[in-house]
Automatic annotation (TrEMBL), chain A:
Residue intervals of the FAD/NAD(P)-binding domain: 65-391
Assembly: Monomer (oxidized form). Homodimer (reduced form). Upon reduction with NADH, undergoes dimerization and forms tight, long-lived FADH2-NAD charge transfer complexes (CTC) resistant to oxidation. Also dimerizes with isoform 3 preventing its release from mitochondria. Interacts with XIAP/BIRC4. Interacts (via N-terminus) with EIF3G (via C-terminus). Interacts with PRELID1. Interacts with CHCHD4; the interaction increases in presence of NADH.
Catalyzed reactions: A + NADH + H(+) = AH2 + NAD(+)
Name of the featured protein: Apoptosis-inducing factor 1, mitochondrial
Keywords for the protein's UniProt record, in alphabetical order: Acetylation, Apoptosis, Cytoplasm, DNA-binding, FAD, Flavoprotein, Isopeptide bond, Membrane, Mitochondrion, Mitochondrion inner membrane, NAD, Nucleus, Oxidoreductase, Phosphoprotein, Transit peptide, Ubl conjugation
Entry's localization field: Cytoplasm, Perinuclear region; Mitochondrion inner membrane; Mitochondrion intermembrane space; Nucleus
Requisite cofactors: FAD
rRNA-binding in keyword set: no
Record gene name: aifm1
UniProtKB/TrEMBL annotation, chain B:
Swiss-Prot/TrEMBL keywords: Disulfide bond, Mitochondrion, Oxidoreductase, Protein transport, Redox-active center, Translocation, Transport
GO CC entries: mitochondrial intermembrane space
Domain CHCH residue range list: 64-100
Bias (Low complexity) ranges: 114-125, 138-165
InterPro entries documented for this protein: CHCH, CHCHD4
Lineage: Eukaryota, Metazoa, Chordata, Craniata, Vertebrata
Any one Gene Ontology BP term: protein import into mitochondrial intermembrane space
Keyword Oxidoreductase in annotation: yes
Spans annotated as Disordered: 17-36, 102-165
Name recorded for this polypeptide: Coiled-coil-helix-coiled-coil-helix domain containing 4a
GO molecular function terms noted in the UniProt entry: protein-disulfide reductase activity
Principal cellular location given in the protein's record: mitochondrion
Species of the source: Dicentrarchus labrax (European seabass)
Top-rank lineage group of the source organism: Eukaryota
Cellular localization per UniProt: Mitochondrion intermembrane space
Length: 541, 165
């Protein structure tokens, strides 16, 4: 029976059939009773000295050293292990957590009805399937002290340790506890830290205590807690993170009565990404999620008065709130540049690397911290999840001898509630001229519908595995689409640079990323973009 | 009829289904399946297995990665009349390893996995064994949904037989 399924071809399914049909391994035979020599009874002695709990020993050398324990690092570790049999990979992270995915922290985790979600960090997708934000459970990794002796190698994660110095000539790093680790190949995937507004930094302790900079698991936990105990919260920032958090909190506000305010300098949400007409449309959607939007808002000062925050805007408006979330960008972490003698890019920030993501011999950089040369789109730095996966994987390939340039274009996505979702690829900068081709949407064109149709719970899984999921269906039915000729229900928007499409947004049309990627890759001038838009079949599901 | 508007530098076109019915005359550059820059599918142009294929999830990189690679290499290159018949020991090693990590390789019911074989065989057979003429994403999609639904090594959701999410 199993042979016939095996004959069908090379597919992973055969594994399962094999593994379930093969006989169970015979249980280990009972050990023959050995001579057991009883240890002598412990002698009464003076009180034993207090034992210092030594941190587990760290390997003094590792063939592959990955600095940073985020998405790019994990993707690189997997890539290295896939290509170099028995590879020994050491990840060093200053976070206490094993590698995890970031997108659910501002999306799915907020929609969970599990009251223990801040502990489990698991979320139920709309179709009932659950998963953890951690890429792998602890059992996947081997302890750092066992790395050197591991017969088949493995991935070890050293948590709570920061690399503070890098000696490129000596091929070694120093940790914050003065331990040294030498390496053969090194990846820097240090990501970044959330930026803050200067006015908040200068505003003093009381204001800082009521401000959240959102990036990590601990930030999610603390924001969840805070948001349950206050009356008013203000998100400063109108980009992806700010808008997603505003919508997530806005939805909560239906039950809790929490006032959710979002303020930003642009005219509309995603103002730096979406053309104005679409940014305006999106802003209306954000408002319908229960968010009070204050656009064209420049913060002049923030003070704490009677335990409340007072945000003074430059145009004179005053906003009173209990807590602030600052979502105003990311500062790439280039602390190691100085000791390592690595170049930092002055335009985009981050470590400057070539098209193969290499900074110097034996050193690669991937993820948010990498300013790389994209042979199609030019030098850039990308702060999205899929880019971390793609660049991490590529760095891992090149660390194992591949010498491939960044070529497979990464994508990103955002969902702002159950009926506004888009996927994007390439350079989507609202300052570029755009051509948008729209059809009228039906109730079938929503992120939720897209996942139902494709049968995958993760809308973006067709791109890379281990990506976050689409949002849980709203408990209230989706509002009926306005049948108006200017309703941007679904469509495709092309971003042009010198008449060439450099970026594409798929607006409420899903599972078409391959064709979008192809158009960017070709880099051709197209005389009629409506003809290009036909390739997307926007009227179909 | 399509309707067009210009807002500053941004052009907006509304199209009906009929407007888009005629085939597109946009020209795309033909794909080169041997392009070394491209993301490869499960099988490389050389005929070797691409262990780094996203479709494999973490199978080749986890604690049982070596055993998995040995078993599948044996199967892939097998020239026996019943393909893979000489690979029993490799598959047994792999199974033994996987049983040591039940969290990573949930042991599924035989009945469920063979019924899955029925439902998945469509997407699975799309995985090419020759050099890929399909764009990598298609491979990944097919492979990913298959691999995660059968051996959800990367998913931490327990004993889950549904198609990957």
């Amino acid at each position: 029976a199993y042979y016939s399924s095996v004959k069908d071809g090379f597919h992973i399914l055969a594994v399962c059939n094999f593994t379930t049909i093969l006989p169970e391994p015979s249980p280990p035979s009972e050990p023959s009773p050995a001579e057991v020599i009883e240890p002598p009874p412990a002698e009464l002695a003076e009180a034993p000295p207090i034992e210092l709990i030594e941190p587990p020993p760290v390997p003094s050398h590792t063939p592959y050293l990955l600095i940073g324990g985020g998405t790019a690092s994990f993707a690189a570790a997997r890539s290295i292990r896939a290509r170099d049999p028995g590879a020994k990979v050491l990840i060093v992270t200053d976070e206490p957590d094993l590698p995890y995915m970031r997108p659910p922290l501002s999306k799915e985790l907020w929609f969970s009805d599990d009251p223990t979600v801040t502990e489990t960090l698991r979320f139920k997708q709309w179709n009932g399937k659950e998963r953890s934000i951690y890429f792998q459970p602890a059992s996947f990794y081997i302890p750092p002290e066992e790395l050197e002796s591991a017969e088949n190698g493995g991935v070890a994660v050293l948590t709570g340790r920061k690399v503070v110095h890098m000696d490129v000539r000596g091929n070694k790093v120093k940790l914050d506890n003065d331990t040294e680790i030498s390496y053969d190949k090194c990846l820097i995937a240090t990501g970044g830290m959330p930026r803050n507004l200067q006015v908040i930094e200068r505003a003093g302790e009381e204001v800082m205590e009521k401000t959240t900079l959102f990036r990590k698991i601990e930030d999610f936990k603390s924001l969840d807690k805070v948001s349950r105990n206050i009356n008013s919260i203000t998100i400063i920032g109108g980009g992806f993170l700010g808008s997603e958090l505003a919508c997530a909190l806005g939805r909560r506000s239906n039950e809790s009565g929490l006032e959710v305010i979002q303020m930003y300098p642009e005219k509309g949400n995603m103002g730096k990404v979406l053309p104005e007409y679409l940014s305006n449309w999106t802003t209306e959607k954000v408002k319908s999620e229960g968010v009070k939007v204050i656009s064209e808002a420049l913060v002049k000062s923030v003070t704490c008065k009677d335990d409340k925050l007072e945000i003074q805007l430059k145009d004179g408006r005053l906003v009173k709130t209990d807590h602030i979330v600052a979502a105003v960008g990311l500062e790439p972490n280039v602390d190691l540049a100085k000791s390592a003698g690595l170049e930092v890019d002055s335009d985009f920030g981050g470590f400057r690397v070539n098209a193969e993501l290499q900074a110097r011999s034996n050193i690669w950089v991937a993820g948010d911290a990498a300013c790389f040369y994209d042979i199609r789109l030019g030098r850039r730095r990308v702060e999205h999840h899929d880019h971390a996966v793609v660049s991490g994987r590529l760095a891992g390939e090149n660390m194992t001898g591949a010498n491939k340039p960044y070529w497979h274009q990464s994508m990103f996505w955002s969902d702002l509630g159950p009926d506004v979702g888009y996927e994007a690829i390439g350079i989507v900068d609202s300052s570029l001229p755009t051509v948008g081709v729209f059809a009228k949407a039906t109730a079938k064109d929503t992120p939720k519908a897209a996942t139902e149709k494709s049968g995958t719970g993760i809308r973006s899984e067709s791109e890379t595995e281990d990506t976050a999921t689409s949002p849980v269906a709203s408990s209230t039915p989706a509002p009926a689409m306005v049948q108006h000729k200017d309703d941007y229900g679904k469509g495709v928007i092309f971003y042009l640079r010198d008449k060439v499409v450099v970026g594409i947004i798929l607006w409420n049309v899903f599972n078409r990323m391959p064709i979008a990627r192809k158009i960017i890759k070709d880099g051709e001038e197209h005389a009629d973009l409506n003809e290009v838009a036909k390739l997307f079949n926007i009227h179909e599901d | 009829m399509s309707y067009c508007r210009q807002e500053g530098k941004d052009r907006i076109i509304f199209v009906t289904k009929e407007d888009h019915e005629t085939p597109s005359n946009a020209e795309l550059i033909p794909e080169d399946p041997d392009d070394p820059y491209e993301e490869q599918g499960l099988i490389l142009p050389s005929g070797d297995i691409n262990w780094n294929c996203p479709c494999l999830g973490g199978m080749a990189s986890g604690p049982c990665g070596s055993q998995f690679k040995e078993a599948f290499s044996c199967f892939h290159y097998s020239k026996e009349e019943v393909k893979g018949s000489e690979c029993i020991d490799n598959f047994r090693n792999m199974q033994e390893c996987m049983q040591r990590y039940p969290e990573l390789y949930p042991q599924e019911e035989e009945k469920e996995s063979s019924s899955q074989a029925e439902s998945n065989s469509g997407s699975v057979s799309a995985t090419p064994t020759e050099g890929s003429a399909l764009p990598p994403e298609t491979d990944s999609t097919a492979g990913t949904s298959t691999s995660e639904s059968t051996v959800s090594s990367d998913s931490t959701s327990p004993t889950d037989n549904q198609i990957a999410s």
